[in-house]
Amino acid sequence: MSNFRTNGRISAAIIGALAIGATAFSAPASAAPLPMFPFFLPPPMEAAPPPVAAAPQDEDRAFELPARLRRQVVSYPTREAPGTVIIDTPNTYLYLVLGNGQAMRYGIGIGRDGFTWSGTQTITRKAEWPAWTPPPEMIARQPYLPRHMAGGPGNPLGARAMYLGGTIYRIHGTNDPSTIGTRVSSGCLRLTNQDVSDLYSRVNVGTKVIVLPMMDRRADLGRTIR
Length: 226
Prior knowledge:
Blueprint: H1 2-25, H2 59-62, E1 72-75, E2 85-88, E3 93-99, E4 102-107, E5 110-111, E6 119-128, H3 136-141, E7 160-164, E8 170-172, E9 183-185, E10 189-190, H4 193-202, E11 208-211, E12 223-224
Parallel strand pairs: 2-11, 5-9, 8-10
Antiparallel strand pairs: 1-4, 1-12, 2-3, 3-4, 6-7, 6-11, 7-8
């Protein structure tokens, strides 16, 4: 009798298991199938990496300067000491005297008619990505100008600035390289952002800066070396 009960329980368990299996396999096709081996889990899905923001366009490279205005080492005989900066106003060049009859020449933009000047100054301050506060004289002429603009890629002073003595004038960069070789400023001297960064790395506070007058063309002596 006990054997019969035991065999009956085993038979009931087997029938129950078969019923569950039949139920699982007869589920609608749209239902997710039960895993045959639930202890093997699928690997977790990895989230896609965020898109990389495109780098801003380099404006200096987008505009190609004429060959004569590109930074280059030239023959430049002068009695000025190495490290002196000479502004050739009429020819829109800036020379950094290297010594041994050579100079690094940069193309520059200069003051428009009525805003050129000449004389000798020194670099009294250097700034990276400088802020811009237009002087009162400029605001009087152009009242629409901002009273202050924080430094950055959109600032008209560009990537670097070197301040000249106690004047309102600076040697600075520009976000519009097409103005190099032209006469458009209010007296400041502008270089491309690449060139002003190069010059900035070569000069120090205290550097002598000679600005030649508009009628003096003796500085146009540079013969390209490299």
